[in-house]
Amino acid sequence: MTSLNARFVETTKKAGMHADGKCLYLEVKESGKKYWIYRYQMNKRRRDMVLGPCSVISLADARDLAHEAYRKRRSGIDPIEARSAEQTPELASITFDKAVDHFLRDKQAGWKNKKHAQQWRNTLMAYCSPLIGRKLLRDVNRQDIINCLEPIWLTKIETSNRVRGRLETIIDWATVNGYRSGENPATLRGNLEHLLPVRPKIAPKSHSSMSYQNISSFWISLRQSNGTGARMLAFSILTACRTNEVLSANWNEIDEENSAWIIPAHRMKVPKEHRVPLTQTALKILKSQRKFRLDHLIFPSQKKDKPLSNNTMASVLKRMNQPYTPHGFRSTFRTWAAEQTDHSEEVAKAALAHTIRDKVDAAYQRGDLFEKRRLLMQDWSEFVCGDTYG
Questions:
Q1: Which of 59, 168, 180, 334 is the Cys-Cys partner for 138 at CB 3.0 to 4.6 Å?
Q2: pLDDT tens digit sequence for 146-164
Q3: What angle do CA 89, 94, 100 make, to 5 degrees?
Q4: Containing H/E element for 215?
Q5: Which helix (H) or strand (E) is 312 found in, with range?
C-alpha cells in the first residue's frame, strides 16, 4: 500500500477515504473539508476515531496519533473510550464561552497582531454568546449556528463571514482537543450554504485607484499641501508600501548609507523582512520630516509613541477632493509598471512585497531582487515627480 504524502494531502479534492496505512485514513468530504480518521475494529465492531481536521493536524502528527491509538488497541484498550475517559469533568462539560477562552489562550501568543485576539472575542461575544454562550460546546448544532448568523447574513456580510469562519475554527479546535465529536456544523460548503439565505451577487469591492496618467498632476498638488499626513502620503506613493507599514515606519529602520528602508518581518503582512529602496525624493521627504521628530516614529502623532490614525492619508485625499484610497496607489504603481516599463512581473511583485504563489518557484527564488527593484523605483519616482521634492 502506497503511503500518503504532504503534497497529496494539501492538494487532493477527491471525496472519499484515502488510506495511508496502519489504519490511518484521510477523509475528504464533498464540502472539501479534510479529516484524519483512525479506523479500527474492537469487539468485532468497526469504529472510526476522528483525529482532527487537516487544517490543524499535519500528516506527521496524524501518524503519531494513529500510532498511539494502535498501542492502546494492542493493550486491549478502546482508543475512543480511552479518550472519553481522559476528559476531566470541566472539559467534558465545557460551554461555548469557556471554549472561546481556552482557544484564545492557546492561540493568541502566536498571533502577530495583538489586537487579533480581542477582535475574535468581540465578534463571538456580540453575535454568538447571547445565544449559545452557556450551551455545552458538545451540544452546539447546525441550528445554533444558523441562529447566530441569520440576523447578520444579509446585512453585515463581511462580519458574518468572519463570525462563521471563527465558529468553524473554534469547533475544529474543540474536536481535536476532545471537547466534542462529529462533523463541524459551522462549515459552509455542502452545509450552511444550503440553509442560509442566498445573498445577492455583488461585484468585489476593490481599492479605488488613480490612473497613472493623472498621478504627475496630482503630485504637483500634493507638494503644495503641508502637514505630516501629506508627507506620509507622498512617501507611501514613492515606496508603494502598505498603509500600516508606513504608519509605523521607524527611524531605526532607515539605512541611509544604502538608501534603504528595512521593514522587519513582524510588521509585514507576510512575516518576512522587506527591504525598500529609497530614491532621492523619498530621502528628501525623510529629511524634511526629521525636524518634526518626537520619538522613534517617522510620522508621529501628537501622542508620544503612537502612530497616526489609519484615516490620516485618506483625509488628505478627501481634502484634495480625490475619490481614491491610499492603498489604491499600489494598484496605480502596478498598472504603470506593467503598461509603461520593461521591468519584469517578478520585480514589480517583489516591490509590492507580494508572495510567490507557485511553491516550486518560491523554493528557488530566495533573493529579494533589491538592485533590480531600485531601478524600478527610480523610474517610478521620475515618472511621478521628476525625482524632485520641494
A1: 180
A2: 999 999 999 888 899 999 9
A3: 145
A4: helix 215-223
A5: helix 312-319
